[in-house]
Amino acid sequence: MSKMSATRYRRFLKLCEEWPRDEGKRGRDLGTFLRQKVASAFREGENTQISDPEKCDQMYESLARINSNYYRQRFPRVRDTSFTGVTAEECKVLLSGNMQQMDEHKKGLWKTLMERFSKSPEDAPEKSQEK
């Protein structure tokens, strides 16, 4: 058994423990997906031999940066909305897949977004050409 394999395994286990679960996204939760991938990659636990240790370490570092909000802190947002004007909380509700829990305001927002993004450029009104 390699000491480095055991260290890698423990680091991934700790990351899995820290990674939050989103109960609103059953079947689409990134935390659950990560746990399944780690279990699959480390089938033999600490005794698992890693075929590409460098790639394994890169994957861990990338996931650890995401989990620690490294990029959010390094590149702070000026506003708490996206280009659509939708807030992070509204996006979370829309992406939860649990449309039944949305109130009428959110349903109106969803309809507005769907209409906005389903229009093709041909649907846009013609601009009058002035000479």
TrEMBL record:
<keyword id="KW-1135">Mitochondrion nucleoid</keyword>
<dbReference type="GO" id="GO:0034551">
    <property type="term" value="P:mitochondrial respiratory chain complex III assembly"/>
</dbReference>
<protein>
    <recommendedName>
        <fullName>Mitochondrial nucleoid factor 1</fullName>
    </recommendedName>
</protein>
<keyword id="KW-0809">Transit peptide</keyword>
<dbReference type="Pfam" id="PF20180">
    <property type="entry name" value="UQCC2_CBP6"/>
</dbReference>
<keyword id="KW-0496">Mitochondrion</keyword>
<dbReference type="InterPro" id="IPR037698">
    <property type="entry name" value="UQCC2"/>
</dbReference>
<dbReference type="GO" id="GO:0042645">
    <property type="term" value="C:mitochondrial nucleoid"/>
</dbReference>
